[in-house]
């Protein structure tokens, strides 16, 4: 029996809807989360019992505004972090600290779903620390997300620079609390969670960083706007040429049927939608989300492009294009009484937060400005996008701020001169890899990637069934980190030896 993954949850996770032409709306940049949240939804109610007692939850009194000195800036809020001491070798032995930097969702998903720390903590005798991003779940200043987002003054503090300062504050506090001044810190993050903390901003706190699936080049014009959708298309085309062609032809077929008398009713019946379609776009967005989520979070054999293409290509002879497309949906989702095509309007707190972030600084120009993908043409019009964001929040986004503040142009030269000890890891089947660092910058700013990997797959929990290429990718990352820590200990020993000689 195929696993049942409710499609409305996929849509809540993945608000990648790009309307054609001037109808482009805000909230249209795909989530960068390491997790296909549908795997974990339902677990959070019992998370306290599903997570080992080795994980302890704490709250740090965090400063609201790290960069100003107005009275309001000194307000504080409680920021959640979780610590696992089980394997830590202790401060006296300068045992390392592995710190996971939370991304655009609640920390529970990371503690439950990130495997790199707990899989490698025994080997390194590392302390495990997970820090929640401000304005998510238990780390929302002044109450709920709804209150925070509606308050113009409060939501202004919801940005990546403030979040980076938060992480540094928590880590410095922990070092002091644990008397672990000489314990090296390795920061780990998935996608957005580490894409802006590239060690150029934090060399005084972190020995090194593992940045998994971080599309740091998907801003301004550094990456072609259709890069994301081109990779999705490539994933399907490499899996099955006929499947790719069927999907490519399906969009005009949907519009053709929709234009007929009772066309929307016909489409609703053919795709067994739980409620009547209001327009053909509802169905197209639904299908786009399925194809893109599967490509981004591919996890064979339970969740893969091959499943969809198997259904499309395996339909009985004589089946028309739309029935083949529906067969692909059924192959992935299982046979259901109906499919929630329209159920994508009730945003979770995570979606609300990501909506603000993408309408302020995280403006990633993801669109389809040329017709070389399997999707309909849908360029991202920044002028209309800006107007939509302004209508929602009262202020326009700053689409060039990320490259202004963090850089991006001449990335090879900049990182070669100023950065050290970074691993940029990617899987080339991940659509976001199109904006990732895919070649070594220097001897210690390294690109580790696999042809078959998907989004953040390398930092998810290891399994006995993992393919050899994934095992080897993780092994390579561990070896690099081992090298950093060995060099650090050698330097530490040399410093102590010199101090003793001078005394």
From TrEMBL:
<dbReference type="InterPro" id="IPR008758">
    <property type="entry name" value="Peptidase_S28"/>
</dbReference>
<protein>
    <recommendedName>
        <fullName>Lysosomal Pro-X carboxypeptidase</fullName>
    </recommendedName>
</protein>
<dbReference type="GO" id="GO:0006508">
    <property type="term" value="P:proteolysis"/>
</dbReference>
<feature type="signal peptide">
    <location>
        <begin position="1"/>
        <end position="26"/>
    </location>
</feature>
<keyword id="KW-0645">Protease</keyword>
<keyword id="KW-0325">Glycoprotein</keyword>
<keyword id="KW-0378">Hydrolase</keyword>
<comment type="similarity">
    <text>Belongs to the peptidase S28 family.</text>
</comment>
<keyword id="KW-0732">Signal</keyword>
<dbReference type="Pfam" id="PF05577">
    <property type="entry name" value="Peptidase_S28"/>
</dbReference>
<dbReference type="InterPro" id="IPR042269">
    <property type="entry name" value="Ser_carbopepase_S28_SKS"/>
</dbReference>
<dbReference type="InterPro" id="IPR029058">
    <property type="entry name" value="AB_hydrolase_fold"/>
</dbReference>
<dbReference type="GO" id="GO:0008233">
    <property type="term" value="F:peptidase activity"/>
</dbReference>
């Amino acid at each position: 029996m195929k696993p049942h993954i409710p499609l409305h949850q996929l849509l809540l996770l993945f608000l990648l809807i790009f309307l054609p032409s001037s109808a482009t709306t805000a909230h249209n940049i795909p989530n960068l989360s390491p997790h296909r949240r549908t795997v974990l939804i339902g677990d959070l109610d019992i998370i306290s019992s599903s997570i080992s007692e080795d994980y302890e939850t704490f709250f740090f009194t965090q400063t609201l505004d790290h960069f100003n000195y107005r009275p309001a800036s000194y307000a504080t809020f409680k920021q959640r972090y979780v610590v696992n001491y089980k394997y830590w070798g202790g401060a006296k032995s300068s045992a390392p600290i592995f710190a996971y930097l939370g991304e655009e969702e609640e920390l529970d998903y990371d503690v439950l779903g990130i495997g790199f720390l707990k899989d490698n903590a025994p080997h390194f005798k590392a302390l495990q620390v997970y820090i929640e991003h401000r304005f998510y779940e238990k780390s929302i200043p002044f109450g709920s997300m709804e209150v925070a987002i509606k308050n113009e003054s409060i939501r202004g503090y919801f940005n990546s620079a403030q979040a980076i300062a938060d992480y540094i504050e928590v880590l410095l506090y922990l070092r002091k609390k644990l008397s672990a001044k000489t314990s090296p810190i390795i920061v780990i993050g998935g996608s957005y969670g580490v894409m802006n903390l590239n060690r150029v901003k934090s060399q005084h706190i972190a020995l090194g960083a593992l940045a998994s699936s971080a599309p740091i080049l998907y801003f301004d014009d550094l990456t072609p706007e259709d890069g994301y959708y081109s990779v999705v298309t490539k994933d399907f085309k490499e899996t099955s040429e006929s499947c790719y062609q069927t999907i490519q032809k399906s969009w005009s077929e949907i519009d053709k049927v929709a234009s007929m008398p009772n066309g929307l009713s016909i489409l609703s019946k053919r795709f067994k939608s739980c409620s009547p379609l209001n327009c053909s776009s509802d169905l197209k967005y639904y299908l786009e989300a399925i194809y893109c989520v599967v490509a981004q979070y591919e996890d064979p054999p339970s969740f893969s492009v091959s499943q969809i293409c198997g259904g499309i290509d395996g339909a009985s002879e004589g089946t028309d294009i739309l029935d083949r497309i529906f067969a692909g949906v059924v192959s992935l989702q299982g046979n259901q009484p109906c499919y929630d095509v329209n159920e994508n309007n009730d945003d979770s707190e995570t979606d609300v937060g990501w909506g603000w972030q993408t309408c302020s600084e995280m403006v990633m120009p993801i669109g389809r400005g040329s017709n070389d993908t399997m999707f309909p043409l849908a360029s991202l019009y920044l002028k209309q996008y800006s107007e939509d964001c302004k209508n929602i929040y009262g202020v326009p986004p700053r689409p060039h701020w990320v490259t202004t503040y963090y850089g991006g142009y001449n990335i090879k030269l900049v990182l070669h001169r100023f950065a050290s000890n970074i691993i940029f890891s990617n899987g080339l089947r991940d659509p976001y890899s199109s904006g990732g660092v895919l070649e070594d910058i220097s001897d210690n700013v390294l690109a580790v990637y696999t042809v078959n990997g998907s989004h953040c797959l390398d930092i998810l929990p290891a399994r006995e069934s993992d393919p050899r290429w994934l095992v080897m990718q993780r092994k390579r990352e561990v070896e690099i980190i081992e090298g950093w820590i060995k060099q650090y200990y050698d330097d530490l020993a040399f410093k102590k030896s010199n101090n003793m000689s001078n005394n």
